[in-house]
Design goal:
- The chain has about 240 residues and is α/β, with parallel strands linked by helices.
- Helices cover about 30% and strands about 20% of the residues.
- The longest helix has 18 residues.
- Bound molecules: 2-phosphoglycolic acid.
- The site of 2-phosphoglycolic acid has 6 residues, from loops.
């Protein structure tokens, strides 16, 4: 694991974006994945600016979203797809060659999960997987107890995830399930970039980086990846 302690959130976002851009410059046909959540907003801004200024050409590259709440689609505010759309896809002056955003509102979620896996089979493996980390150590919606070699799947959301998601939905929406890329797909990425900022992430980062590798803390699997980078601000590095 490559641990990069950054001065602040902006520095973290910029350094992570520089790595993402250099990976795409080396692999212009690569498949990349970015998460939803609060953490990656700065990276989305940096990356969009890099693409629109011509610093990196994504016209042959491919994009897949990481996860989605079951019940929500790309036009639903608070969904991961909507976050991807508003902060990235709609802002790009030129699109990716192929884009797949998971549709959590699909009636047949099994079919939706199969479509996600097919897209990754055709365009993958991932060149870069960018991730946030949940307070329970989840990556995407790979919750406690997940198989390390899982593909895209539908999962019951952990209690911690359901508590934290209230920041997006309040009492208006209370999803029980998510669709997510699996850890097997994430671990096949050439490069993994995990972002974490804020003191509230310090304890789980310590467990992820230096605790025993166990599916009870899914992010510990990154200790087994040969090319994983963890970018964190000083507050998240506190422990
Ligand atoms: P956050 O979510 O970026 O909103 O903290 C991270 C996650 O739960 O994966």
């Amino acid at each position: 694991m490559n641990i990069v302690i950054c001065d602040n959130y902006e520095d973290m976002s910029k350094k992570a974006c520089d790595l993402l851009v250099s990976c795409l410059q080396e692999n212009p046909n690569g498949l990349i994945s970015l998460p939803g959540g609060d953490t990656p907003l700065g990276l989305f801004r940096e990356f969009t600016a890099a693409v629109n200024s011509g610093n990196v050409d994504i016209s042959a590259a491919n994009y897949v979203s990481l996860d989605e709440w079951v019940g929500l689609g790309i036009d639903d505010e608070g969904s991961c797809g909507h976050f991807n759309k508003v902060n990235l896809l709609d802002k790009l002056e030129k699109p990716f060659a192929n884009t797949y955003v998971i549709n959590g509102a699909a009636e047949d979620t099994t079919n939706e999960k199969d479509k996600l896996n097919s897209f990754i089979d055709v365009h993958g493996p991932l060149c870069v997987s960018v991730l946030g980390i949940g307070l329970n150590g989840h990556l995407g919606f790979n919750e406690e107890g997940v198989c390390f070699d899982s593909e895209g799947h539908i999962t019951a959301l952990a209690e911690t995830t359901r508590r934290v998601m209230r920041k997006y939905f309040g009492d208006n929406f209370n999803p029980e399930y998510g669709i997510t890329q699996g850890l097997g797909q994430i671990m096949k990425a050439n490069t993994i970039i995990l972002l974490a900022n804020g003191a509230h992430k310090a304890e789980i980062l310590r467990k992820a980086i230096s605790g025993p590798v166990t599916n009870e803390v899914p992010a510990t699997v990154l200790q087994n990846h040969p090319n994983a980078y963890i970018f964190m601000d000083k507050a998240a590095a506190g422990e």
